[in-house]
Amino acid sequence: MRQEPSQKVLLWLVAVGFFMQTLDATIVNTALPAMAQSLGESPLRMQSVVVAYSLAMAMLIPASGWVADRFGARRVYFLAIVFFVAGSVFCALSHSLTQLVAARVVQGLGGALLLPVGRLVVLRTFPREKFLQAMSFVAIPGLIGPLIGPTLGGWLVEVASWHWIFLINVPVGLLGCAATMRYMPGVPAPTVARFDLAGYLMLAFGMVALSLALDGLASLGLRQASVLVLMIFGLASLVAYWLHAARRPDPLFSPRLFSVDTLRIGLLGNLFARLGSSCMPFLIPLLLQVTMGYSPLQAGMMMLPVAVAGMSMKRFTTTLITRFGYRQVLVGNTLLVGLTMASFGLAAPSQPLWVHVVQLAVFGAVNSLQFTAMNTVTLKDLGHDMASSGNSLLSMVQMVAMGMGVAAAGAVLAAFTDFFQPTGTAQTLQAFQATFACMGLITVASAGIFWQLSPQDRSGSQAGASVDAGDHG
């Protein structure tokens, strides 16, 4: 693929922005116990740090395309980096969990715009026959971020402090700001459709209310009545949005999208399968450090088998889907993901190291296959007029499910911690074991959704290539 020098720099700029976002989504997990100790909190109740970032991203993704068209990609991308860097600095300066969560929201608002706006610029800059190659290049740093994130986070905690996992974003962000102003095209679209503000507010409120309800059970100290009220308001807001969208000629996400069987099944499958599996990058480092005596660096290095096996599995995904079809692959693999997650309920400090490594590698492989297959089946049958909207909806569902999965795992872990009334490591280990078993069963239950796919559907598609680039859950 021959490119002008400015096009090469543009690809690097989008790739580095994607790398910053994916790195930050994974680097925090191994540092949570150190953060908890510094802030005077329990390490078992730190999921709000992860949930706030994912939820902030999910809230802004539906508006990202309209914002880029209205104000110009250069200005929006520059502002996204500024928000991301400012949020990183505020995270490093936080002296309480509340301050840290608020700073993660600011950081997430910036991160939400990096990939969608970058992808939009690449789509408009490169001809269609070169778009897949361009997005494949952009995707590579996105795969490297989760690979090095946990280990880098653990290393920084040990050699410096947890504050540096956020401060390392500052020099990269400053260089990104300078490159954005020089190389990013930034002319706003000549005509921009009116933004569906009422629909956006309904959708955003519904997502926030449901996520806060789950998180409130674990870390916010909300009473059951408050949680119930939040859940009812959240569900009512989402129902109101779909009724509103059905009447509006240009909604954020048209109900017509759900007339496509594969998108409807793929979205629901994404949501419920990720409610289980998205908690693993949060739970595993906690398990290793809190109950097994691993250092932050050791816990981070134990996540390497997950990332390496996940990257290695990508080359076999198309072959498996072509041979067995989407339904067989997704039903069988969803069961494998859930059972592998539940197998962590047998984890114990007395087990040999190689057992843990094999267990983590198997989870990484089946989870990678799951993400790629779910993404491609969701988007592969969309027409050109619905592709952009469907892609944004899938990205939003991914981030919502990631945040809700971590919140749900935190709530389950808190419930089992209270149930076992821990007075030492053994009881805390029992709480972790029961949590892994429960979250694994949630994932197993989602296999029934993928059973609704047509058994004849075997067509591989490249539609998932670009969206898979944005998937680091």
From TrEMBL:
Primary localization:
membrane
**Do the record's keywords include Cell membrane?**
yes
Q: Where are the transmembrane segments?
A: 49-69, 76-95, 101-122, 134-156, 162-183, 195-214, 226-244, 265-288, 294-312, 324-347, 353-372, 393-416, 431-451
Kindly list the places in or outside the cell where this protein is found, as annotated in its UniProt entry: Cell membrane
Looking at the record, the residues that make up the Major facilitator superfamily (MFS) profile domain are 10-458
Q: Which UniProt keywords apply?
A: Cell membrane, Membrane, Transmembrane, Transmembrane helix, Transport
Record membrane topology: Multi-pass membrane protein
Its recorded name reads Multidrug transporter subunit MdtD
* Organism from which the protein derives: Acidovorax benzenivorans
